[in-house]
């Protein structure tokens, strides 16, 4: 979430003229910053996706290791670890969405005008 928040703030600060152009042409605040928000969300999810790619190949996570050492079949341990990784990815996605939504709201006033932050 920190990566996506930082990316969104820096992009919005550097793209104020483009955003104001979109607003002056009739776009809503949400439409004016939609692409910047999507890019920030993607950037925020990259570390989680990279972690999911290497689980089991490069590293063995704690719950999976503990289950394997206690005699649980590898497929059961792997399925539990997959569920945990998907829960972590979903939690990261929800947090990223909340952070970017909050930041976007800070950049516009009630009239839909861009404010400096």
Automatic annotation (TrEMBL):
Pfam families: UPF0014. The chain crosses the membrane at residues 40-63, 83-104. It is found in: Membrane. It is a multi-pass membrane protein. The keyword RNA-binding does not apply. One of its GO terms (cellular component) is plasma membrane. Its main location: membrane. Keywords: Membrane, Transmembrane, Transmembrane helix. It comes from the Bacteria. Belongs to the UPF0014 family. This is ABC transporter permease.
């Amino acid at each position: 979430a920190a990566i996506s928040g930082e990316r969104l703030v820096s992009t919005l600060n550097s793209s104020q003229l483009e955003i104001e152009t979109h607003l002056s042409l009739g776009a809503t605040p949400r439409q004016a910053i939609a692409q910047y928000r999507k890019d920030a969300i993607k950037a925020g999810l990259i570390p989680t996706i990279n972690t999911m790619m290497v689980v089991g190949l490069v590293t063995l996570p704690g719950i999976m290791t503990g289950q394997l050492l206690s005699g649980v079949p590898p497929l059961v341990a792997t399925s539990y670890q997959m569920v945990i990784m998907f829960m972590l990815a979903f939690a990261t996605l929800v947090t990223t969405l909340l952070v970017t939504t909050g930041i976007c709201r800070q950049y516009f006033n009630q009239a839909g005008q861009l404010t400096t932050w």
